[in-house]
């Protein structure tokens, strides 16, 4: 196991720069998730750690060693690919043993490690099968088994769950997390799915257009997003954002339809902000039903069973709310809502930074 | 309400002609659809093949219809030194040329699979030996192998000074055989290279990346990833290549006509030589028929050798 340090790393293809100086410190044994929309450079960064892409600038260290010019096979890392990249002509056991066979490890040791990994992942009955004969989830496990057998310094996962169906994805999420708690190997995991990131990571790195937008523990990112991008990216359904001005009475939202805007309560007014153009963020789950509150017209109701998602229109704006209660109102009717003032967010309209 | 609605519906009776109903008959439809293809196969494939086999058992000559003579043609061929030589020539020609084509073709395919500058141009150029008509390239080789005007001799003698005399490529049996094999290899490489290149491109790059992370060097990646993944297409291309080479006629006939003194005859050229210019249609047909067992063996090899390997099978074939 080892720590990984990424210092001012850049990547350019010809004159197009895709990663603009990224700094990330990954502690020994930490589970770090790089998350962001497609094209943000997260997979490229992972491939640079693996050595599959050249590093155009900056420095990557695995343990104490700078690995910029170390070939992939000497970096002592294992990677799980999105398409699993299992060798189709080898059995499950051979797939897992391949790296050790190349290193000419004694057969007894190979067998021992393979059977141990198979046990951890529940693959004992599948060792003689070929990848084609396995289901998606089983292939996924074999790919992880191949990584475990190596006992590497760092595990790298490149969107490993995106080829699985929704239910299996949730199950594998738990399995990977459990595996990490058990093996405690430093892990870097790439995904575009913020729920995966929130549920699994010790530390989330939100990337966007080749830069790090914010880095921190999952709940820290959820509670205090640094900027509009992180606020909109983390959390599902996404945070409601209203344009308007900060006033002493609260947040005066614009009415896009031209009428009078609503005034939303603010928990703690930032200093020197009176009259400032800003964006007011409120998460759907932080809106309460309140007969005394703001009157809002119900547009769409989507019950999920455990909760009810409601899109309401108030002050000319559409707002998504999530209620624990079941709603009996019909579209077109009016309900009263009010935000939890303690957990609202304010962002500078010009810079997008948190106020 | 519902009852009234149901009653007001009018059920129209299907009133179709017998022709429409005939075309709805599955058996009839199958027969009529198969007919054109079957007719083509029978007229242009089965009939000539059957006629050839029949001729092999007769003493037909040009201008004289023959009589059935049983295995007489084959017995006489068994004692015919020229025929025996042609069999050995064919086997040598096929085996050496196939090995050569595959070694060079695979090498070329691996080179072209890399990111080279002008990749598409190079790939197109590779095909040139294949798209040039065989007779045209044969004439080019005829010049290259000419005892007096050969460019190879010219380079070796006059430019480099490595030899004192011009090489007699086609005047001696063994040099002539190797010269023909070289020409066949040159002509066969594109087919092998392009087919294998297509096979190489189906191999997922992430397999190479996984192997690289697993610690495999370039040779190990070739041995453990490229080669096994290429095996299925390799076997198909191999079978085709063997069949094409075994039945080759044009190159040899255009360059040496089987000479010197029948030393480079292949079975195909000898069959033609005896049957058409020689007029012995029965004997020529017998030589051609003698190729059939070899071709059947090659086909069987492909049938069994190419049977889907276990790893290619899906879960239902476990």
Describe this structure in words.
Chain A: Its main location: membrane. Chain A: Belongs to the ABC transporter superfamily. Chain A: InterPro entries: AAA+_ATPase, ABC_transporter-like_ATP-bd, ABC_transporter-like_CS, ABC_transpr_MalK-like, ABC_transpr_MalK/UgpC-like, Mo/tungstate-bd_C_term_dom, NA-bd_OB-fold, P-loop_NTPase. Chain A: Keywords: ATP-binding, Nucleotide-binding, Transport. The complex is a heterodimer of chains A (355) and B (318). With 355 residues, chain A is of the alpha+beta class. Chain A has eight helices and 19 strands. Helices cover 25% and strands 34% of the residues of chain A. In chain A, the strands form four sheets. Chain A has a six-stranded mixed beta sheet, sandwiched between helices. In chain A, strands 13-12-11-14-19 form a five-stranded antiparallel beta sheet. In chain A, α2 (92-102) packs across α3 (107-121), α2 (92-102) packs parallel to α4 (136-150) and α3 packs across α4 (136-150). Chain A is elongated and about 75 Å long. The two termini of chain A are 39 Å apart. Chain B has 15 helices and no strands. Chain B is flat. Chain B starts with a helix and ends in a 13-residue tail after the last helix. The mean pLDDT of chain B is 86. The A-B interface holds A 50-52, 71-73, 77-79, 81-83, 85-90, 98-99, 102-103, 129-134, 146, 150 and B 204, 206-207, 209-217, 220, 224-225, 228-229, 231, 309-315, 318.
Task: Kindly report the greatest chain-chain contact and the residue count on each side.
Answer: A-B, 30 and 26 residues
Give me the CATH fold name of the largest domain in chain A. Rossmann fold
Tell the overall outline of chain A: elongated
Helix content of chain A: 10-25%
End-to-end separation of chain B: 58 Å
Oligomer: heterodimer
Number of strands of chain A: 19
Our count of helices of chain B gives: 15
């Amino acid at each position: 196991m080892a720590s990984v340090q990424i210092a001012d790393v850049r990547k350019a293809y010809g004159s197009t720069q895709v990663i603009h100086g990224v700094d990330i410190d990954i502690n020994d044994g930490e589970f770090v998730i790089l998350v962001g929309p497609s094209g943000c450079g997260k997979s490229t960064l992972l491939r640079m750690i693996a050595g599959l892409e050249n590093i155009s600038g900056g420095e990557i260290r695995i343990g104490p060693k700078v690995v910029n010019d170390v070939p992939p096979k000497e970096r002592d890392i294992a990677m799980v690919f999105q398409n699993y990249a299992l060798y189709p002509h080898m059995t499950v056991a051979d797939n897992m043993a391949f790296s050790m066979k190349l290193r000419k490890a004694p057969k007894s040791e190979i067998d021992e490690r393979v059977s141990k990994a198979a046990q951890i992942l529940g693959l004992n009955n599948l060792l003689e099968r070929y990848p084609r004969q396995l289901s998606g989830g089983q292939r996924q496990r074999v790919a992880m088994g191949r990584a475990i057998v190596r006992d590497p310094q760092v595990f790298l996962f490149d969107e490993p769950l995106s080829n699985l169906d929704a239910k299996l994805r949730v199950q594998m999420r738990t399995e990977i997390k459990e595996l990490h708690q058990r093996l405690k190997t430093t892990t870097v995991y790439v995904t575009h799915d913020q729920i995966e990131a929130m549920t699994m990571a010790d530390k989330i790195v939100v990337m966007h257009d080749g830069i790090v937008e914010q880095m921190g523990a999952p709940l820290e990112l959820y509670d205090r997003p640094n900027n509009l991008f992180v606020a909109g990216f983390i959390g599902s359904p996404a945070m409601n954002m209203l344009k308007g001005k900060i006033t002493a009475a609260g947040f005066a939202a614009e009415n896009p339809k031209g009428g009078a805007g609503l005034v939303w309560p603010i928990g703690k007014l930032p200093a020197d902000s009176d009259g400032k153009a800003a964006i007011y963020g409120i998460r759907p789950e932080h809106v309460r039903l309140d007969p005394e509150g703001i009157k809002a017209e119900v547009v769409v109701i989507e019950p999920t069973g455990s909760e009810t998602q409601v899109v309401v229109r108030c002050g000319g704006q559409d707002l998504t709310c999530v209620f624990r209660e079941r709603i009996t109102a019909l579209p077109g009717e009016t309900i009263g809502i009010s935000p939890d003032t303690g957990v609202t967010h304010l962002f500078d309209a010009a810079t997008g930074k948190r106020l | 309400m519902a009852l009234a609605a149901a009653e007001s519906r009018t059920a129209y009776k299907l009133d179709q002609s017998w022709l429409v109903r005939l075309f709805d008959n599955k058996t009839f439809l199958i027969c009529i659809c198969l007919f054109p293809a079957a007719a083509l196969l029978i007229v242009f494939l089965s009939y000539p093949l059957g006629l050839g086999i029949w001729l092999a058992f007769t003493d037909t000559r040009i201008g004289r219809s023959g009589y059935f003579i049983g295995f007489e043609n084959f017995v006489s061929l068994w004692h015919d030194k020229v025929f025996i030589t042609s069999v050995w020539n064919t086997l040598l020609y096929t085996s050496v040329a196939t090995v050569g084509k595959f070694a060079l073709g695979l090498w070329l395919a691996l080179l072209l699979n890399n990111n080279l500058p002008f990749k598409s141009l190079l790939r197109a150029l590779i095909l040139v030996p294949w798209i040039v008509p065989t007779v045209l390239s044969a004439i080019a080789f005829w010049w290259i192998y000419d005892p007096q005007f050969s460019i190879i001799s010219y380079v070796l003698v006059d430019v480099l000074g490595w030899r004192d005399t011009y090489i007699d490529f086609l005047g001696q049996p063994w040099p002539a055989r190797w010269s023909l094999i070289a020409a066949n290899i040159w002509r066969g490489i594109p087919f092998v290279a392009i087919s294998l290149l297509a096979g190489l491109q189906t191999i997922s790059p992430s397999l190479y990346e996984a192997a690289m992370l697993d610690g495999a060097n370039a040779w190990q990646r070739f041995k453990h990833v490229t080669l096994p993944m290429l095996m299925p297409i390799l076997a198909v291309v191999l079978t085709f290549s063997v069949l094409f080479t075994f039945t080759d006629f044009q190159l040899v006939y255009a360059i040496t006509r089987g000479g010197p003194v029948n030393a480079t005859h292949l079975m195909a050229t000898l069959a033609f030589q005896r049957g058409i210019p020689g007029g012995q249609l029965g004997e020529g047909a017998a030589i051609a028929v003698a190729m059939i067992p070899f071709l059947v063996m090659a086909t069987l090899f492909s049938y069994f050798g190419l049977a889907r390997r276990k790893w290619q099978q899906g879960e239902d074939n476990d």
